UniProtKB/TrEMBL annotation:
Protein species of origin: Hygrophoropsis aurantiaca
The name this protein goes by in its record: Glutathione S-transferase
Length: 237
């Protein structure tokens, strides 16, 4: 297991930042955090860490130096899905990816389903540019891939990068529905919340409840701050 310093540059409200942090916490991998405010991005971030200015980013292999000025010798990786795979490969003992090629492929397929069929329509719905029906279709697509046993992980008997990918969107979907927060028509959030309580979504809800109670979820999430930020953003826009 590597002992090289790993720095996570994150914006805590971001689901993509949380994906990476969940994996790090669940695998008990040492790391340090440097917060990057996407609403007021510092100039050094694009110049020294990521030219596009997106998060999350990790630097790996640098000495314990100023995170605002990582050396050129440090490995810099962006895109949350790429980072998850890197962490899983760097720490195979973590179980973040199964050992068997078929099982690994199934985890990756679940990740792709979450990204394309749930996250994309949910973000569109949140921004007032998508439909609730598409979100529910995404929930069904993900649910079809979950195990039948209540409280199990997304795949197999251990926490994988599939859980780290799914949990941030489960959290945010639940919060936006419960508090009716988004650019969608007023009341549609509550309508979505009611739809998800129907028996046809029971497996998805059981999984959600189990994951939301995990310590890693609680440690990497600030619901009050997210609600405050969303209320400010949607009121402004």
């Amino acid at each position: 297991m590597s002992t090289e310093l790993l720095t996570l540059y994150r914006f805590k409200p971001s689901p993509y930042s949380q994906k990476v942090e969940l994996a790090l916490v669940e695998a008990n991998i040492p790391y340090r955090i440097h917060e990057v405010d996407l609403l007021n991005k510092p100039e050094w971030f694009a110049a020294k860490v990521h030219p596009v200015g997106k998060v999350p980013v990790i630097t790996y292999g640098a000495a314990d130096t100023d995170p605002t000025n990582p050396p050129d010798s440090a490995v810099k990786l962006a895109e949350s899905s790429v980072i998850l795979e890197f962490i899983a490969d760097l720490h195979p003992e973590s179980g973040l990816l199964p050992k068997h090629p078929v099982a690994r492929a199934k985890v990756r397929f679940l990740n792709e389903t979450v990204s394309s069929k749930l996250a994309t329509p949910w973000v569109a719905f949140l921004r007032g540019a998508g439909s609730m029906d598409d979100v529910l279709k995404g929930v069904e697509a993900v649910q079809d891939l979950l195990p039948d046993a209540a409280g199990k992980f997304a795949f197999g008997d251990t926490y994988t990068i599939a859980d780290a990918t799914l949990v941030p969107f489960v959290l945010r979907l639940t919060i936006s529905a419960k508090h009716d927060l988004g650019k969608f028509t007023t009341g549609e959030g509550h309508q979505l919340e009611a739809e998800l309580q129907k028996p046809k979504y029971a497996k998805f809800i059981q999984y959600s409840h189990a994951m939301l109670e995990r310590q890693s979820t609680k440690d990497t999430h600030d619901e009050e701050e997210l609600i405050r930020l969303w209320r400010k953003f949607f009121a402004k826009n």
